[in-house]
């Protein structure tokens, strides 16, 4: 027996979007419900226009932050850019307040993914009054562009991202073992280079040697710390070879787990004729001898 629909929500062929199942309107009529429809729905022309306008405003606000970080632009236009940034921030703050006002459970929305993103979009500007350096963090509001997935009806593709995340979760132990082994190599080689090269060649401590080992095993090679002795160069060459040897290990682990996830589901229905017990989930006959398989209980 299904639960009754939320009053005023209206019937939906798809049973409601993911967002609507989590956040319901605070009112089923009046101005409050109309604003809920405009902000959280994407079907009617005014609802889509609001979404598109919001995306354009987000892009403009991010562009303002980027331009204000350029010295040549900041010298001439800082006052205008600063005013525009506050204008955008106040607009986002009002929009955030309206979102809390129109939902049935404001705290639930405030602690949801999009609710936290909306809050982070306005906090840096206010914090810049006390800590000026935090003004640059307003670019985090670019994350609000993730709403374009809802506007373009792409939310159903989130299940594909779930496959990737599940494969990563299932391979976490193997990856953690790999990381532990890699950290052990970094510590050993960092300490070795600290002993071999010493402070005169830039290896002032074991942590400095570990930093060099991480850069080397990652095949980046910044060159800010480099060995000078023949034995140190031999150790460096050895570590580079190790780096190339293991750099594909986590990728291989994840790819194998992902390939396993994409395989069709199997069932352990043993064939009564030949005894084969590995068949696809929708198989009715044995793939080896063709005998009928026993039906699984529903």
Automatic annotation (TrEMBL):
GO annotation terms (biological process):
action potential
Q: Which GO terms describe its molecular function?
A: voltage-gated potassium channel activity
Enumerate the SUPFAM superfamilies for this protein: Voltage-gated potassium channels
User: One Pfam match, by short name?
Assistant: Ion_trans
GO CC entries: voltage-gated potassium channel complex
- Top-rank taxon of the source lineage equals Bacteria
Q: Which UniProt keywords apply?
A: Ion channel, Ion transport, Membrane, Potassium, Potassium channel, Potassium transport, Transmembrane, Transmembrane helix, Transport, Voltage-gated channel
**Where are its TM segments located?**
50-67, 79-98, 110-140, 175-196, 202-222, 234-256
Q: Using the record's annotation, list all stretches that form the Ion transport domain.
A: 48-256
Q: Which InterPro entries match?
A: Ion_trans_dom, VG_K_chnl, Volt_channel_dom_sf
Q: How does it sit in the membrane?
A: Multi-pass membrane protein
Chief location category:
membrane
Where does the UniProt annotation locate this protein? Membrane
State the name under which the record lists this protein: Voltage-gated potassium channel
Which species?
Pseudoxanthomonas taiwanensis J19
* Lineage, highest ranks first: Bacteria, Pseudomonadati, Pseudomonadota, Gammaproteobacteria, Lysobacterales
């Amino acid at each position: 027996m299904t639960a009754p629909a939320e009053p005023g929500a209206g019937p939906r062929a798809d049973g409601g979007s993911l967002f609507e199942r989590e956040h319901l309107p605070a009112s089923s009529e009046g101005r409050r419900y109309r604003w809920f429809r405009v902000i959280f729905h994407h079907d009617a022309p005014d609802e889509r226009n609001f979404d598109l306008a919001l995306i354009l405003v987000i892009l403009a606000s991010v562009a303002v932050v980027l331009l204000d970080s350029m010295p040549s632009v900041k010298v001439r236009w800082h006052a205008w850019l600063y005013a525009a940034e506050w204008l955008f921030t106040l607009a986002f703050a009002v929009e955030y307040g309206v979102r809390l006002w129109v939902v049935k459970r404001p705290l639930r929305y405030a602690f949801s993914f999009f609710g936290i993103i909306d809050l982070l979009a306005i906090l840096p500007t206010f914090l810049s009054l006390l800590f000026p350096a935090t003004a640059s963090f307003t670019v985090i509001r670019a994350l609000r562009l993730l709403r374009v997935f809802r506007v373009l009806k792409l939310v159903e593709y989130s299940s594909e991202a779930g496959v990737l995340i599940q494969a990563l979760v299932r391979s976490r132990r193997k990856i953690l073992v790999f990381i532990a082994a890699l950290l052990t190599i970094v510590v050993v080689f960092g300490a070795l280079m600290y002993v071999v090269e010493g402070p005169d060649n830039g290896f002032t401590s074991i942590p400095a040697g570990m930093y060099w080992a991480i850069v080397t095993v990652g095949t980046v090679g910044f060159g800010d710390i480099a060995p000078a002795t023949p034995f140190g160069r031999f150790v460096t060459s050895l570590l580079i070879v190790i780096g190339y040897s293991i750099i594909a290990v986590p990728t291989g682990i994840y790819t194998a787990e992902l390939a396993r996830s994409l395989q069709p589901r199997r069932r352990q229905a043993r064939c009564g004729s030949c005894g084969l017990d590995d068949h696809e989930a929708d198989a009715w006959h044995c793939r080896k001898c063709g005998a009928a398989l026993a039906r699984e209980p529903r």
